[in-house]
Amino acid sequence: MQSCLYIWVIVIFSVTTITGIFKIEKCSREYEFEKISIIQSYKLLWDILKLPRIQVLSLALLTARIGFSTTEAVSSFKLIDAGLSQDIIVLINSLMFAVKFVMPFFVSKYVTGPKPMSYYMKWTPFRLLWGLAFAALIYYTPLLIKNKDGNVDVPIYYYCILAFINLINEMLSIFMLLLVYSFFCRLSDPQFGGTYMTLYNTFFYMGWLVPYTFALKMVDLLTLSQCSNDDLNICSTIDLKQKCVKGEGNCIVIVDGYYISMVVCITIGLVWYYIFRNIIRNYQSLGPSHWMIHLNRSNTGDVKEPCIISTA
Protein backbone atom coordinates (compact mmCIF):
# COMPACT_ATOMS: atom_id res chain seq x y z
CA MET A 1 0.00 0.00 0.00
CA GLN A 2 2.83 2.38 0.85
CA SER A 3 4.49 1.80 -2.54
CA CYS A 4 1.16 2.15 -4.38
CA LEU A 5 0.41 5.49 -2.72
CA TYR A 6 3.96 6.70 -3.32
CA ILE A 7 3.78 5.89 -7.04
CA TRP A 8 0.39 7.55 -7.51
CA VAL A 9 1.51 10.69 -5.68
CA ILE A 10 4.32 11.02 -8.21
CA VAL A 11 1.97 10.35 -11.15
CA ILE A 12 -0.70 12.82 -9.99
CA PHE A 13 1.84 15.50 -9.15
CA SER A 14 3.58 15.08 -12.52
CA VAL A 15 0.35 15.16 -14.56
CA THR A 16 -0.90 18.20 -12.67
CA THR A 17 2.39 20.05 -13.17
CA ILE A 18 2.56 19.24 -16.87
CA THR A 19 -1.07 20.29 -17.34
CA GLY A 20 -0.46 23.58 -15.54
CA ILE A 21 2.59 24.37 -17.66
CA PHE A 22 1.53 23.27 -21.13
CA LYS A 23 -2.30 23.47 -21.19
CA ILE A 24 -3.46 26.63 -22.93
CA GLU A 25 -7.02 27.79 -22.39
CA LYS A 26 -8.92 28.69 -25.54
CA CYS A 27 -10.64 32.03 -25.64
CA SER A 28 -14.43 31.99 -25.82
CA ARG A 29 -16.13 34.89 -27.59
CA GLU A 30 -19.51 34.22 -26.02
CA TYR A 31 -18.61 36.43 -23.05
CA GLU A 32 -16.32 39.43 -22.74
CA PHE A 33 -13.70 37.70 -20.68
CA GLU A 34 -10.60 39.26 -19.19
CA LYS A 35 -7.27 37.68 -18.42
CA ILE A 36 -6.48 37.66 -14.70
CA SER A 37 -3.59 36.30 -12.66
CA ILE A 38 -3.65 33.64 -9.96
CA ILE A 39 -3.59 36.31 -7.23
CA GLN A 40 -6.50 38.09 -8.87
CA SER A 41 -8.31 34.75 -9.11
CA TYR A 42 -8.16 34.36 -5.33
CA LYS A 43 -9.32 37.93 -4.87
CA LEU A 44 -12.21 37.01 -7.11
CA LEU A 45 -12.81 33.92 -4.97
CA TRP A 46 -12.99 36.14 -1.88
CA ASP A 47 -15.56 38.38 -3.63
CA ILE A 48 -17.60 35.28 -4.46
CA LEU A 49 -17.52 34.21 -0.82
CA LYS A 50 -19.01 37.55 0.20
CA LEU A 51 -22.17 36.93 -1.81
CA PRO A 52 -25.05 36.27 0.66
CA ARG A 53 -26.42 33.35 -1.38
CA ILE A 54 -22.97 31.74 -1.51
CA GLN A 55 -22.64 32.01 2.27
CA VAL A 56 -26.00 30.31 2.84
CA LEU A 57 -25.17 27.63 0.28
CA SER A 58 -21.76 27.07 1.89
CA LEU A 59 -23.41 26.48 5.25
CA ALA A 60 -25.81 24.01 3.65
CA LEU A 61 -22.95 22.12 1.95
CA LEU A 62 -20.88 21.96 5.13
CA THR A 63 -23.75 20.35 7.03
CA ALA A 64 -25.50 18.36 4.29
CA ARG A 65 -23.85 15.02 5.03
CA ILE A 66 -23.91 14.99 8.81
CA GLY A 67 -27.03 12.83 8.74
CA PHE A 68 -25.25 10.11 6.74
CA SER A 69 -21.92 10.21 8.61
CA THR A 70 -22.49 7.41 11.14
CA THR A 71 -23.98 5.11 8.50
CA GLU A 72 -21.12 5.51 6.05
CA ALA A 73 -18.16 5.98 8.42
CA VAL A 74 -18.84 3.45 11.16
CA SER A 75 -21.11 0.69 9.82
CA SER A 76 -18.35 -1.35 8.18
CA PHE A 77 -16.28 -1.33 11.37
CA LYS A 78 -19.29 -2.40 13.43
CA LEU A 79 -19.94 -5.32 11.09
CA ILE A 80 -16.37 -6.47 11.61
CA ASP A 81 -16.76 -6.08 15.38
CA ALA A 82 -19.93 -8.16 15.16
CA GLY A 83 -17.90 -11.04 13.73
CA LEU A 84 -18.08 -10.56 9.97
CA SER A 85 -14.88 -11.21 8.05
CA GLN A 86 -13.02 -8.19 6.74
CA ASP A 87 -12.62 -10.00 3.41
CA ILE A 88 -16.41 -10.07 3.00
CA ILE A 89 -16.62 -6.31 3.61
CA VAL A 90 -13.92 -5.71 1.01
CA LEU A 91 -15.68 -8.00 -1.48
CA ILE A 92 -19.04 -6.21 -1.02
CA ASN A 93 -17.39 -2.80 -1.38
CA SER A 94 -15.59 -3.96 -4.51
CA LEU A 95 -18.85 -5.09 -6.09
CA MET A 96 -20.30 -1.65 -5.40
CA PHE A 97 -17.84 -0.15 -7.89
CA ALA A 98 -19.90 -1.77 -10.64
CA VAL A 99 -22.91 0.18 -9.33
CA LYS A 100 -20.91 3.41 -9.48
CA PHE A 101 -20.07 2.69 -13.10
CA VAL A 102 -23.59 1.77 -14.24
CA MET A 103 -25.73 4.23 -12.24
CA PRO A 104 -25.01 7.37 -14.35
CA PHE A 105 -26.49 5.71 -17.44
CA PHE A 106 -29.85 5.19 -15.72
CA VAL A 107 -30.18 8.53 -13.90
CA SER A 108 -28.81 10.91 -16.53
CA LYS A 109 -32.25 12.26 -17.47
CA TYR A 110 -32.91 13.25 -13.85
CA VAL A 111 -29.42 14.66 -13.32
CA THR A 112 -29.49 16.83 -16.45
CA GLY A 113 -32.99 18.14 -15.83
CA PRO A 114 -33.83 21.72 -14.84
CA LYS A 115 -34.36 20.95 -11.13
CA PRO A 116 -31.89 18.30 -9.92
CA MET A 117 -32.12 19.32 -6.26
CA SER A 118 -35.84 18.59 -6.18
CA TYR A 119 -34.90 14.92 -6.57
CA TYR A 120 -32.12 15.32 -4.01
CA MET A 121 -34.51 16.69 -1.42
CA LYS A 122 -37.10 14.07 -2.28
CA TRP A 123 -34.72 11.20 -1.52
CA THR A 124 -32.88 12.74 1.45
CA PRO A 125 -35.35 11.53 4.15
CA PHE A 126 -35.36 8.02 2.69
CA ARG A 127 -31.57 7.82 2.66
CA LEU A 128 -31.40 9.13 6.21
CA LEU A 129 -33.85 6.51 7.46
CA TRP A 130 -32.06 3.81 5.47
CA GLY A 131 -29.33 4.10 8.08
CA LEU A 132 -31.71 2.29 10.44
CA ALA A 133 -31.48 -0.73 8.12
CA PHE A 134 -27.73 -0.82 8.77
CA ALA A 135 -28.33 -0.47 12.51
CA ALA A 136 -30.80 -3.38 12.49
CA LEU A 137 -28.45 -5.56 10.44
CA ILE A 138 -25.52 -4.86 12.77
CA TYR A 139 -27.66 -5.58 15.83
CA TYR A 140 -28.74 -9.00 14.55
CA THR A 141 -25.47 -9.94 12.83
CA PRO A 142 -24.01 -11.88 15.80
CA LEU A 143 -27.20 -13.95 15.96
CA LEU A 144 -27.28 -14.61 12.21
CA ILE A 145 -23.66 -15.55 11.50
CA LYS A 146 -22.70 -17.59 14.57
CA ASN A 147 -23.72 -21.19 15.17
CA LYS A 148 -24.46 -22.84 18.48
CA ASP A 149 -20.78 -23.48 19.16
CA GLY A 150 -19.95 -19.79 18.78
CA ASN A 151 -18.08 -20.24 15.51
CA VAL A 152 -18.73 -17.89 12.59
CA ASP A 153 -20.86 -19.53 9.91
CA VAL A 154 -22.30 -16.99 7.49
CA PRO A 155 -25.44 -18.27 5.73
CA ILE A 156 -26.23 -17.42 2.14
CA TYR A 157 -29.29 -15.35 3.02
CA TYR A 158 -27.12 -13.07 5.18
CA TYR A 159 -24.93 -12.29 2.17
CA CYS A 160 -28.07 -11.40 0.22
CA ILE A 161 -29.35 -9.09 2.97
CA LEU A 162 -25.95 -7.41 3.35
CA ALA A 163 -25.58 -6.93 -0.41
CA PHE A 164 -29.12 -5.56 -0.74
CA ILE A 165 -28.70 -2.99 2.05
CA ASN A 166 -25.34 -1.87 0.65
CA LEU A 167 -26.73 -1.77 -2.88
CA ILE A 168 -29.61 0.55 -1.99
CA ASN A 169 -27.31 2.82 0.02
CA GLU A 170 -24.75 2.97 -2.78
CA MET A 171 -27.38 3.71 -5.43
CA LEU A 172 -28.79 6.56 -3.37
CA SER A 173 -25.32 7.88 -2.64
CA ILE A 174 -24.23 7.98 -6.30
CA PHE A 175 -27.56 9.36 -7.51
CA MET A 176 -27.55 12.19 -4.97
CA LEU A 177 -23.89 12.95 -5.64
CA LEU A 178 -24.57 13.34 -9.37
CA LEU A 179 -27.52 15.60 -8.58
CA VAL A 180 -25.30 17.83 -6.46
CA TYR A 181 -22.71 18.13 -9.25
CA SER A 182 -25.45 19.05 -11.70
CA PHE A 183 -26.66 21.66 -9.22
CA PHE A 184 -23.14 23.11 -8.99
CA CYS A 185 -22.96 23.43 -12.77
CA ARG A 186 -26.25 25.34 -12.87
CA LEU A 187 -25.07 27.82 -10.24
CA SER A 188 -21.63 28.49 -11.67
CA ASP A 189 -20.99 31.76 -13.44
CA PRO A 190 -19.90 30.74 -16.99
CA GLN A 191 -17.05 33.26 -16.85
CA PHE A 192 -15.46 31.65 -13.78
CA GLY A 193 -16.91 28.14 -13.81
CA GLY A 194 -13.75 26.45 -12.54
CA THR A 195 -13.48 28.84 -9.61
CA TYR A 196 -17.10 28.26 -8.60
CA MET A 197 -16.85 24.48 -8.95
CA THR A 198 -13.66 24.42 -6.87
CA LEU A 199 -15.36 26.44 -4.15
CA TYR A 200 -18.51 24.30 -4.11
CA ASN A 201 -16.55 21.05 -4.07
CA THR A 202 -14.30 22.28 -1.26
CA PHE A 203 -17.26 23.00 1.00
CA PHE A 204 -19.05 19.80 -0.02
CA TYR A 205 -16.09 17.54 0.76
CA MET A 206 -15.28 19.40 3.97
CA GLY A 207 -18.87 18.62 4.90
CA TRP A 208 -18.02 14.98 4.23
CA LEU A 209 -14.65 14.61 6.00
CA VAL A 210 -15.28 16.60 9.19
CA PRO A 211 -18.58 14.89 10.20
CA TYR A 212 -17.07 11.46 9.51
CA THR A 213 -14.22 12.20 11.90
CA PHE A 214 -16.65 13.36 14.59
CA ALA A 215 -18.90 10.35 14.01
CA LEU A 216 -16.03 7.95 14.70
CA LYS A 217 -15.10 9.87 17.83
CA MET A 218 -18.70 10.20 18.99
CA VAL A 219 -19.22 6.43 18.87
CA ASP A 220 -16.27 5.95 21.24
CA LEU A 221 -17.44 8.69 23.61
CA LEU A 222 -21.01 7.39 23.78
CA THR A 223 -20.09 3.74 24.25
CA LEU A 224 -20.31 2.61 27.88
CA SER A 225 -18.44 -0.56 28.87
CA GLN A 226 -17.55 -2.36 32.06
CA CYS A 227 -15.01 -5.00 32.95
CA SER A 228 -16.62 -8.33 33.73
CA ASN A 229 -14.63 -8.83 36.95
CA ASP A 230 -14.09 -5.21 38.05
CA ASP A 231 -17.11 -2.94 38.42
CA LEU A 232 -14.89 0.15 38.76
CA ASN A 233 -13.16 -0.45 35.42
CA ILE A 234 -15.25 1.13 32.64
CA CYS A 235 -12.80 0.21 29.85
CA SER A 236 -12.78 3.79 28.57
CA THR A 237 -9.08 3.82 27.64
CA ILE A 238 -6.62 1.36 26.15
CA ASP A 239 -4.84 1.03 29.50
CA LEU A 240 -8.08 0.16 31.30
CA LYS A 241 -8.94 -2.41 28.63
CA GLN A 242 -5.51 -4.02 28.96
CA LYS A 243 -5.88 -4.03 32.73
CA CYS A 244 -9.19 -5.84 32.37
CA VAL A 245 -7.67 -8.45 30.03
CA LYS A 246 -4.69 -8.99 32.34
CA GLY A 247 -7.14 -9.62 35.17
CA GLU A 248 -8.70 -12.35 33.00
CA GLY A 249 -11.83 -10.28 32.40
CA ASN A 250 -13.68 -9.00 29.36
CA CYS A 251 -14.91 -5.51 28.53
CA ILE A 252 -18.66 -5.90 28.19
CA VAL A 253 -20.50 -3.22 26.23
CA ILE A 254 -23.44 -1.92 28.25
CA VAL A 255 -24.48 0.91 25.90
CA ASP A 256 -23.31 0.83 22.27
CA GLY A 257 -22.54 4.37 21.13
CA TYR A 258 -23.11 3.40 17.50
CA TYR A 259 -26.88 3.32 17.89
CA ILE A 260 -26.97 6.58 19.83
CA SER A 261 -24.73 8.23 17.25
CA MET A 262 -26.97 6.89 14.47
CA VAL A 263 -30.08 8.43 16.03
CA VAL A 264 -28.31 11.74 16.69
CA CYS A 265 -27.01 12.02 13.11
CA ILE A 266 -30.34 11.07 11.54
CA THR A 267 -32.09 13.66 13.71
CA ILE A 268 -29.59 16.34 12.66
CA GLY A 269 -30.08 15.28 9.03
CA LEU A 270 -33.86 15.65 9.28
CA VAL A 271 -33.46 19.09 10.88
CA TRP A 272 -31.12 20.05 8.02
CA TYR A 273 -33.72 18.83 5.54
CA TYR A 274 -36.52 20.97 6.97
CA ILE A 275 -34.30 24.05 7.23
CA PHE A 276 -32.74 23.97 3.77
CA ARG A 277 -35.25 22.15 1.54
CA ASN A 278 -37.07 25.30 0.36
CA ILE A 279 -33.87 27.36 0.22
CA ILE A 280 -32.09 24.86 -2.02
CA ARG A 281 -35.14 24.41 -4.24
CA ASN A 282 -35.36 28.16 -4.72
CA TYR A 283 -31.66 28.41 -5.49
CA GLN A 284 -31.85 25.85 -8.29
CA SER A 285 -34.45 28.02 -10.04
CA LEU A 286 -32.06 30.98 -10.16
CA GLY A 287 -30.01 31.39 -13.31
CA PRO A 288 -26.25 32.04 -13.39
CA SER A 289 -26.91 35.80 -13.53
CA HIS A 290 -27.93 35.69 -9.84
CA TRP A 291 -24.53 34.25 -8.89
CA MET A 292 -22.26 36.37 -11.09
CA ILE A 293 -19.35 38.53 -9.99
CA HIS A 294 -18.70 41.47 -12.30
CA LEU A 295 -15.05 42.30 -12.85
CA ASN A 296 -13.80 45.84 -12.50
CA ARG A 297 -10.46 47.56 -12.24
CA SER A 298 -10.40 47.27 -8.47
CA ASN A 299 -10.11 43.51 -8.56
CA THR A 300 -8.53 42.77 -11.90
CA GLY A 301 -6.19 45.67 -12.49
CA ASP A 302 -5.58 47.43 -15.77
CA VAL A 303 -6.08 44.62 -18.30
CA LYS A 304 -6.57 44.60 -22.00
CA GLU A 305 -6.86 40.93 -22.94
CA PRO A 306 -10.32 39.77 -24.04
CA CYS A 307 -10.07 36.35 -22.38
CA ILE A 308 -10.14 35.22 -18.75
CA ILE A 309 -7.85 32.52 -17.36
CA SER A 310 -9.09 31.81 -13.84
CA THR A 311 -6.94 29.13 -12.19
CA ALA A 312 -8.23 29.14 -8.60
Give a structural overview.
The protein has one domain: Up-down Bundle (Growth Hormone, Chain: A). 71% of the residues lie in helices and 3% in strands. The chain is mainly alpha-helical and 312 residues long. The chain has 11 helices and 2 strands. It starts with a helix and ends in a 12-residue tail after the last helix. Helix 3 packs antiparallel against helix 10 (257-284) and helix 5 (86-111) runs parallel beside helix 7 (156-187). Mean pLDDT is 82; it is low at 295-312. A two-stranded antiparallel ribbon has the order 1-2.
What structural category arises from helix and sheet content?
A: mainly alpha
The ordered H/E elements are HHHHHHHHEHEHH
Which fold name corresponds to the CATH topology? Growth Hormone, Chain: A
Terminal Cα span: 31 Å
User: How many strand elements?
Assistant: 2
**Quaternary:** single chain
CATH level 1 class label? Mainly Alpha
> How large a portion of the residues is in β-strands, by DSSP E?
under 5%
Radius of gyration: 25 Å
The biggest sheet, with number of strands, parallel, antiparallel or mixed sense and barrel status, is: 2 strands, antiparallel
Quick check: average pLDDT? 82
H/I helix tally? 11
